[in-house]
Design goal:
With 301 residues, the protein is of the alpha+beta class. It has a domain of 191 residues: Protein Transport Mog1p, Chain A (3-Layer(aba) Sandwich), CATH 3.40.1000. The chain contains three helices and eleven strands, in the order ααββββββββββαβ.
């Protein structure tokens, strides 16, 4: 077989090389970033709200403490108290101004009292439900023999006014404070005779001579802002200084404490009934060195 002879005039054959195909890789999706937790911003507390909460908390604690102290005082009043030699009785001394003002005033005032006569005794006085109480000597903490009085059943038992127990007191139904205080030889407070009956600052009460259950007495009253020997403010007071013996007397009164809403007129009826129950029978007065007191200031609280 004859091999074809290439034609010199024919162009040379060209061959196209197949290009190398590179594998195509799919790009992976970008990793999703985890969400970042942002804590919520706490609300800003209002200064006014914080103050109101603090005030409310203080008021609640004050009320709880006041109620609790009342129960504690009533409990202590029923518990016998032993006076040790280390316990000293103190009497407040007046300022020179008070002494000067008292020395220039007469003992008896002529201004008539608005309510100087005791009203009729309510039927409740004869009720056996009324309880009888004794007057307590503030120094010995024992009952003064021969003196007693009665209180309505809805009135709490009297307790000592202060650490010296110069007087004992409780509250009447209308909100006024009722107190009794022995005065004179062997007592914390001095006898009222030959002294001005006044408050701590020297404001004299309106006074009038009278008798209480057969005993000479001075009725005193005042409608002004004053204070007792213990420094407690009042706005209205009515009471009696009763002569029990030559060296011993009894103070009995009721008053409206300042800052407290009290029905003084309503309690006047109750007070008049209580005064009528005061009994003096075979009064035995302890003879001892009398204590000094500057004025016959009602020591009620």
């Amino acid at each position: 077989m004859e091999t074809p002879t290439p034609n010199p005039s024919s162009p040379p054959l060209t061959y196209e090389e197949t290009p190398e195909i590179q594998p195509v890789f799919e790009k992976s999706a970008p990793e999703s970033q985890a969400p970042v937790y942002t804590p919520p911003t706490p609300p800003k507390s209002s200064p006014v709200g914080s103050i109101l909460k603090a005030v409310a908390g203080f008021v609640i604690l004050f009320i709880v403490g006041y109620v609790a102290s009342g129960y504690i005082r009533q409990y202590l009043a029923k518990t016998p108290t032993t006076v040790t030699p280390s316990q000293e009785t103190t009497v407040l001394e007046p300022t020179p101004e008070v002494i000067a003002s008292i020395a220039t005033r007469p003992l008896t005032q002529t201004t008539p009292l608005v309510s100087s006569q005791l009203t009729g005794t309510p039927s409740a006085v004869a009720d056996t439900a009324w309880k009888q109480y004794a007057v307590v000597n503030g120094i010995t903490r024992k009952a003064v023999e021969g003196i007693s009085y009665q209180l309505p059943p809805d009135v709490l038992a009297p307790i000592c006014d202060g650490s010296t127990c110069a007087s004992q007191g409780t509250y009447l139904p209308g909100g006024t404070r009722f107190t009794v205080a022995p005065r004179g030889t062997g007592q914390v407070l001095a006898d009222y005779r030959n002294r001005i009956i006044s408050d701590l600052s020297g404001k004299a009460f309106t006074v009038k001579e009278t008798t209480i259950n057969g005993k000479k007495a001075i009725e005193f009253s005042g409608t002004f802002t004053g204070s007792t020997v213990g420094g407690y403010a009042f706005t209205n007071m009515h009471g009696y200084m009763i002569e029990v013996s030559d060296t011993f007397s009894l103070e009995i009164n009721h008053f409206s404490p300042s800052g407290i809403t009290a029905d003084f007129v309503k309690d006047e009826t109750t007070f008049a009934a209580i005064v009528k129950t005061v009994s003096f029978s075979s009064v035995a007065v302890t003879q001892s060195t009398p204590t000094k007191a500057p004025t016959s200031t009602p020591k009620a609280k």
